[in-house]
């Protein structure tokens, strides 16, 4: 099996996407879903940010803003020598299958990912195509498009959405931040485009 295999398309018949206001609320929802699961089995997956689920110790110690960049660098198709040890599609599929059978909080996903030698972030992304119930932060709902016609999104604390949208559509940046951004772009270009 090829390590570079793409995730499978969404094949869950019906899905409920539960969008929480914060990552911290995700584990709380999982614990509540476990109570329901005892009465009726429900497959569940979590979509948290890479910074919440990344387990490669050499990268975790970096600043949160650099984890995405380091992950992309380690998994670059041309960078086979230094590829992340947890980015193995066979092991990721195995962890994905575990996720679809066992309801886990983020910490449990990370522990199980280390145990199986698979990235919980990518396994959760794949599992989300196969589960009845997806829990994620509202910030990440754009990662779900396009949704199937039988999908429903539930926004926890929906009364906060207008102010959240307003905050997303407005920003302020200082000259110092612009200069720092320009420097970061130059460094990234030199590092990733050769």
From TrEMBL:
<dbReference type="InterPro" id="IPR045028">
    <property type="entry name" value="DinG/Rad3-like"/>
</dbReference>
<dbReference type="Pfam" id="PF06733">
    <property type="entry name" value="DEAD_2"/>
</dbReference>
<dbReference type="InterPro" id="IPR014013">
    <property type="entry name" value="Helic_SF1/SF2_ATP-bd_DinG/Rad3"/>
</dbReference>
<dbReference type="GO" id="GO:0003677">
    <property type="term" value="F:DNA binding"/>
</dbReference>
<dbReference type="InterPro" id="IPR027417">
    <property type="entry name" value="P-loop_NTPase"/>
</dbReference>
<keyword id="KW-0067">ATP-binding</keyword>
<dbReference type="GO" id="GO:0016818">
    <property type="term" value="F:hydrolase activity, acting on acid anhydrides, in phosphorus-containing anhydrides"/>
</dbReference>
<keyword id="KW-0547">Nucleotide-binding</keyword>
<dbReference type="InterPro" id="IPR010614">
    <property type="entry name" value="RAD3-like_helicase_DEAD"/>
</dbReference>
<feature type="domain" description="Helicase ATP-binding">
    <location>
        <begin position="1"/>
        <end position="194"/>
    </location>
</feature>
<dbReference type="InterPro" id="IPR006554">
    <property type="entry name" value="Helicase-like_DEXD_c2"/>
</dbReference>
<protein>
    <recommendedName>
        <fullName>Helicase ATP-binding domain-containing protein</fullName>
    </recommendedName>
</protein>
<dbReference type="GO" id="GO:0005524">
    <property type="term" value="F:ATP binding"/>
</dbReference>
<keyword id="KW-0378">Hydrolase</keyword>
<dbReference type="GO" id="GO:0003678">
    <property type="term" value="F:DNA helicase activity"/>
</dbReference>
